[in-house]
Target: Radical SAM protein
Amino acid sequence: MPYRLKDGVYLVEGATRGAILDTNSGLVYSVNGIACQIVNYRSENNTYWGQLVQMGLAETCVSSPGISAIQPLKDTERLKFVWFEVVTDDCNECCEHCYAGSMPRTYRKEMGFAENALQELIAQPERKKMRHSDWLRLMKEAYDLGCRAGQLIGGEPFLYKGENGETLLDLAQYLVELGYTRVEIYSNGTLLTPEKVKLIKTLGVHVAISLYSSDPSTHDLVTRTPGSHAKTMRAIQWLKEASVPLRVETVLMKRNQETIAETTALKETLDVVGRHPDPLRPKGRGVNPLLQPDFEYVVRYGLMLKPNFTAETDTVSHYSSGHSCLLGKITVTEFGEVLPCIFSHDNVVGNVLVAPSLESVLREPVLTRIWRATKDGVMVCRDCEYRYVCFDCRPLSEGASAGNAGYLTAPYPRCTYNPYTGEWGQGLWKVDELGYAFYDRTLAAEIQEVARTMSESVTAQVAH
Ligand code: SF4
Ligand code: SF4
Model:
């Protein structure tokens, strides 16, 4: 009797195993190589097909059986999101890990850090900056190209000042008036005032705030700015009282690792949304290895220890057609540079101050290649059966490979899965100096030890 996978159910084969993606239920099943052969009609086994029918994954068919292909995403050209990095270099804080290398101007002049010398070199006097009218034009062009969501970010975006005294909230208001349906300001919160919060609320703008620790002195050590914790907490309070949609985010690093549990608990008490603490990405000043959290904390907060995937129709189409995060997104800096991601300052793909239009930058082959980059091009992931349900971060992967692998090819450094053996939790993917990916098994004992304390199983879910 001929069988086939039901509509919306797909088999993705990896190096040794396969994954059945059921977009009808959202479940992902890990299956072995023999099951792959049966489902792909390379060998016969009606008993196995019968099991799949019972599980609601397959059906008998009157016409000829066949493998259904994942539907590609239709909308791969549209601009969907812009990070408007309205202030790139300047900040009123000087966080030790800043991805943009931002800091107060006075620091740059007075402190004479080695990184400041570099900044001076980059920020040459003749370097053209976006004027207020350039930002307005860009926002309108992006809107006309279909973009409806944007984030105003820096440096510290509240330091933005147009040539005629225009403020950040003037830019936010313009985005709202244009018809952007989601506008967010990402700030350290220290320059907020009750009046600004009131206007933010009236505009319907969202806010995201960085809070590094529940402990004031730890937070201030991260920001290298005494008194910053009190100001950030005050802003959070004002925003909450005004019921402004708010998220509070925490980067996990060496400096705050010991207070990370308390910080997470504080956020729960405050009832503010935010992602899981995110281990520091090696970008900007964050490339300093001394800032990285201890491996125990990386395991606890950052590693993929077991398959935890869902197979939604949109996700599977998206991840098999373009990059899981970068597709449809750009960053524009205060110098007009266009980047694929806010964390990709070394990957300039164009400049809106010199290009004839934003649209022409979006059509640059280099950006198209990034937008359309699936895990089929990533080392190791290309051989993994989870590649169309697994999230990816290119700046993180490239940064972790320390120059030994490319932006689009570096393996994902937080994955403990080995698609060549089917094991979870036995190592991590790294790149050697010759550019080859290897599974570093020397970390297995520590990964397993921490995983045990988290009561996590690191064994794959196997349906066959
Ligand atoms: S990161 Fe790559 S290797 Fe790891 S589960 Fe995802 S797709 Fe597979
Ligand atoms: S690519 Fe990475 S760093 Fe950039 S937005 Fe996505 S997850 Fe964040």
